[in-house]
Amino acid sequence: MDAAFTEEQHAIRRTLRALLDKRCGPDEVEAAVRTPTGYDEELWGELAGRLQLPGLALPTAYGGAGCGPTELALACAETGRGVLPSPLIATAALAAPLILALGSERQRAGLLPALASGELTGTLAVPGGRLPIALALTGPNDGDWAGGGRAGGIQAHEEEGGAGWRLYGEAGQVLHGHTAEVLVVAAHTGGFARSGTRLFLVRAAGAAGLRRTRQAVVDETRPQARLELRDVPAELLGEDGGQAESEVGAALAATGAAAAAVLAAEAVGAADAALTRTLAYVRERERFGRPLGSFRAVRHRLADLYVMLQAARSAAYCAAWTAGRGHPGPDGSSVAHGGEPGVTGGAGEPGVAALALAQALEALRAVAAEAVQLHGGIGVTWERAAHLYLERAAGDELLLGPAHRLRARAAEEAGLFAAGPGAGRAAGLLTAVDA
């Protein structure tokens, strides 16, 4: 693994940071989250159109930039610094990869260019708040997490003559579910005897029977919605007959590994910004006639946070690099990180991404809590915006965590506490994340 960034990757960071420093301050974030969409549509158009953020990890054959999860993680580290409200994670890290992995050529050509340009936004809808399990981050995704034919899930039934599919059920905590135009919906098919989980495409515009309600959330910069589907017309994702359930599970696991790495990088960016703001504040704030930061106890607390942040940063980029091995190349074919065709990755080491996300979430939570404490009463005001980072930490744990379950799942997959073939991988897995 070469830990040095390329000049192109440095350029992505510089350009994005310069733009967000001007357009994503606390006042702008507050105004954006109060809009019906929950984000600044003008800024999103600029990020998608000029900088191609939603298409960074998509092949050029479908209108993307031909990069991979590493570049998307670098971009999200910058958006995390400003706690940017945007549909980037939902579109680029959840919906688009699944369409690319499982969609038919017609579906890819019809949707991916529009998602890459920001013309459309997308998201993944999983019933019962089971998104971490669906992505194989906190448990195996080979069970009945999509409902199992029971109440509380989403069921799909095929229309007579094979004319299409209809979905019935509901899903909560759907990231940007109230505005996304393309919904990738996980639904249960086949009843009890021949049950299975499949992914379906729903075009939200004009979809009869679809009701979307924005929910109250801890982190307002990540709006979520409850979707109610009452015989909503849907299209099976993939060629005629769809994909086998094992292929669906594998695609979700690979998407989960990349999404966890991207979310970890974003959390690291947020923690870095929170620590930077806190350092600046303790230098200027005086207590007993001297700067607050001159006290030894404060310096030690900040030093501990810095060490924790650097460890989380290394883990996040290691996970992004691992997920990028085998990502689709510029023409859509599978290409390894080093350019070798036919070598797959990403889902090969899902424990790396889960561990990295757990470490990043814990670092963000610790840094944000100290930031609020050291700011004192103004730490929960929009003037200093320290509270935004604390809310982001809590919101991310609810979205794809919590951290202890991420660690438990990684340990389970590595065979850390059980004898068998996986046990030999445990030491290498932990070494890779800690490096």
Mean pLDDT: 86
Portion of residues within helices: 40-55%
Alpha plus pi helix count: 13
Backbone CA Rg: 21 Å
Number of separate domains: 3
Number of strands: 9
- Determine the structural class based on helices, strands and strand pairing: alpha+beta
State the CATH architecture of the largest domain.
Answer: Up-down Bundle
- CATH fold naming of the largest domain: Butyryl-CoA Dehydrogenase, subunit A, domain 3
Overview of the molecule:
The chain is an alpha+beta fold. The chain folds into 3 domains: 113 residues, Butyryl-Coa Dehydrogenase, subunit A, domain 1; 120 residues, Butyryl-CoA Dehydrogenase, subunit A, domain 2; 189 residues, Butyryl-CoA Dehydrogenase, subunit A, domain 3. Strands 1, 2, 3, 4, 5, 6 and 7 form a 7-stranded mixed β-sheet that branches. The longest helix has 40 residues.
Blueprint of the fold:
Elements: H1 7-23, H2 26-33, H3 41-49, H4 69-81, H5 88-102, H6 105-117, E1 122-125, H7 131-134, E2 154-158, E3 165-175, E4 182-189, E5 196-203, E6 210-214, E7 224-236, H8 245-284, E8 286-287, E9 290-291, H9 296-324, H10 350-375, H11 386-400, H12 403-414, H13 423-434
Parallel strand pairs: 1-4
Antiparallel strand pairs: 2-3, 3-7, 4-5, 5-7, 6-7, 8-9
Key attributes of the depicted protein:
435 residues; alpha+beta; Butyryl-Coa Dehydrogenase, subunit A, domain 1; Butyryl-CoA Dehydrogenase, subunit A, domain 2; Butyryl-CoA Dehydrogenase, subunit A, domain 3; 3 domains; seven-stranded mixed sheet; two-stranded antiparallel ribbon; 13 helices
